[in-house]
Amino acid sequence: MLKDDYNISITGRQLYEAEDRGEVTLSTTGTYTQRDGAQFIAYKEYDEDDPRQAHTAVLKVEPGKVTMIRQGSSTRLILEEGRRHLCLYDTGFGSLTVGVFTSKLKVALGQEGGSMDIRYTLDIDSNLSSQNELTVTVAPRPRRRAEPEL
C-alpha cells in the first residue's frame, strides 16, 4: 500500500520525426524511499480505458542508472548514461524488445526528494523509433495541521 506522502511530477516529451512532437505531464502522489544505496519513487498509473485499474510504477535510482518498472507487466527499461540496453516493453497487446540508449542522465535526489532529467532514444530492430526526454520531480507533500480542539 502506497503512503502517498510525496508529490511526483513527470513530464515526458517525444520526438518522432523532424517536427512530430508529443508531450505528456503526470502530477500525482506516491512514495519516495531510500534503501541499500538506491532511491525508489513509486506511484500509481491508471488505465485510460478503465480508470478503476491501476498498476504501480517504480523508478529505481542507483548511481549512474535508473530502472523503470511497471508492476503487473513485463516492462523494465534500463537507463544508463552512454549505454544501450535491450529492454522489454509491454504494449498491452504483448511484449517487444526495444533498444534504449541514454545520452543524458542527471540525477539530483536527496533526503527530501529532488529531480531527474533524462534524455534517451528508443529503437526497434536497431531502427530509431523516437527521441525522448523525461523530467521527474519529487517533493514531500505539505503536512496538514491538526484541527484545534474546541
The second-level CATH architecture is: Beta Barrel
Main sheet properties: 10 strands, antiparallel
Q: Helical region count? A: 0
Query: What is the H/E order?
Result: EEEEEEEEEE
Top CATH class: Mainly Beta
Radius of gyration: 17 Å
How many DSSP-defined strands? 10
Strand content: over 45%
Secondary structural class: mainly beta
**What percent of residues adopt helix (DSSP H or I)?**
under 10%
Give me the CATH superfamily. Answer: Calycin beta-barrel core domain
Strand order of the largest sheet: 6-5-4-3-2-1-10-9-8-7
Broad shape: globular
Distance between the termini: 34 Å
Q: Look at the structure and give the mean pLDDT.
A: 88
CATH fold call: Lipocalin
Which regions have little confidence, pLDDT < 50, spanning 5+ residues? none
Number of domains: 1
